[in-house]
Amino acid sequence: MTLELSTRERVIIDKLSEDGAVSVASLAKELGYSEVTIRGDLKLLEEKGWINRTRGGAAPALHRSILERQRIFPERKNAIARAAAELVNNGDVIMIEAGTTTALIARYLAGKRDVHIVTNSTLVFSYGRMNPNLQITMTGGEFRRPTESLVGPIALETISRLNVRLAFVGTDGFTLERGMTTHIVEGVEIVKAMRDHAGTTVLTADSSKYGRMGFANVLPLSGVDLILTDENLDDNAAAELEAAGILVRRVRAEAVAV
Q1: DSSP 8-state code for residue 50
Q2: Of the candidates 116, 120, 162, 123, which has an alpha carbon nearest to the alpha carbon of residue 3?
Q3: How far apart are CA 208 and CA 201, in angstroms?
């Protein structure tokens, strides 16, 4: 899947996110373009992996929750993912946990050579499968469509057999008191397993997640080696984390094509 979308394509994706399915006729009428033009847009979106065309229209290829999360702070997420990819060396073996920010790391590995990714994320596979310099190992396991993730005993067994230099993990929220938290209980053990089998664990999380608490505890912040976030994390929060001995790097979010 590629993220580069035209303005009209983004409008179509937004409609799919809101409505679940769209017809060529309704899109043409609402957007003011011919049905031929809209069919061309849908064909391109299907090739990019965003949609599945149906008779007379289209449906999203991804779960609505994924589409909605991808639209939140895309500049921040891309900046964080780019910074994470810069930590990867040629020939590295890395793990990437499922998440909309973590998955973007695969996109920014272009130019790296002989990188082996172990992941439970089908989004990582979508972003990285066309890059001949990436070897991708999927963990296997039970597929969870709302998170585009593989979880359960099979996924954990695969991770437990492997050792990597870097693991990139995400979170639904993080605080100094509660650490990393998530709304998806099944993801807790995945993150812990990746941490246990990596030399260095990096939390990638945009600043909006600081101060939030999910349903389940994952790890204390001391359980990761680095937090990669964006410059919108305020100075007081950064100072609080650093005073607790937690390494934080804030990256500048620039406008990107999404």
Answers
A1: S
A2: 123
A3: 21
Could you tell me if 153 and 160 are in contact, meaning their C-beta atoms sit under 8 angstroms apart? no
Q: What domain range is 246 assigned to?
A: 73-251
Give tens-digit pLDDT for 75-127: 899 999 999 999 999 999 999 999 989 999 998 999 999 999 999 999 899 88
Instruction: Tell me the pTM.
Output: 0.78
Q: How far apart are CA 147 and CA 101, in angstroms?
A: 12
Q: Say yes or no: 77 and 56 in one domain.
A: no
Q: Are 179 and 220 in contact (CB under 8 A)?
A: yes
As a whole number of angstroms, the distance between CA 243 and CA 173 comes to 20
Report how far residue 163's alpha carbon sits from residue 19's, in angstroms, rounded to the nearest whole number: 43
Pick the more confident residue, 19 or 94.
94
The residue with tokens 């437990």 is 160
State both tokens at 98.
């499922």
Indicate the Cα dihedral angle 23, 25, 31, 37, nearest 10°.
Answer: 100
Rg (CA), the chain: 19
Q: Select from 21, 37, 61 the last residue of a domain.
A: 61
SS3 assignment for 114-177: CEEEEECEHHHHHHHCCCCCEEEEECCCEEEHHHCEEECHHHHHHHHCCCEEEEEECCCEEECC
User: Residue 198 sits in a domain of what CATH number?
Assistant: 3.40.50.1360
| Strand order across the 22-23 sheet | 22-23, 57-60, 51-54
Asked if the structure places residue 67 within a domain, the reply is: no
